[in-house]
Amino acid sequence: MIDHADDLASVQAATERLLVAVGALDNAAVTQSSRLPGWTRGHVLAHLARNADALVNVLEGRPMYLSGEARDADIERDAPRPLDVQLADVRESAERLRAAGAVPADWSRTVELRNGVTDRAERVPFRRWIEVELHHVDLGIGYELEDLSEEFTEREIGFLAARFAGHPDVPSTALATVDGRTWTTGGGAAGDPVTVEGTAADLLGWLAGRRDGSGLAVKGGALPSLPPL
User: Fold this and answer.
1) C-alpha 84: how far from its chain's center?
2) Among 29, 62, 111, 198, which one is least packed by beta carbons within 10 Å?
């Protein structure tokens, strides 16, 4: 059962953690490479701010972005800004999203995201929580997948397992953590079922494209190649 109000509170807490961590950087650090290919830390911060505004659009019934090209251009425009401007933008855009989420609404309604993807409004706060937490890791400033809460990690593994379920390029795959939590995914590709086991952080890292899966144990075949998110 999804509690959008609880997720909105979790988004706010995650945003504050990120702002405190980024606030310890300097202007030079913002221009340095993040862990995302081709993106500086400034790109990541600009994306987080523009994503918050895009989700306000979603909640208020407007297109998430004017276009993919406009989204990319906005990130490129905002990436070189100095640290204080980046921090203010992330903080102020997060506040706009918090305010939009506080408006009484039908959270069971269907909303449209990018590329024609639809979802229930109540899942939008969790989607934002994903953005904040994973991109905090992507900044490469000391926050790692192992630092994520157990609740978030378990829910995100389930979210990604559902996303790849039935995918034509992914064989039937059982996912298991070393402490016994399990999920299933794939199933659309030919081949024998495989089991992938590891820590929750390593499973999440592999599913989210943040780790290569070398820390995972695979039974029944090779580690499946996952399509990009």
Assistant:
1) 24
2) 62
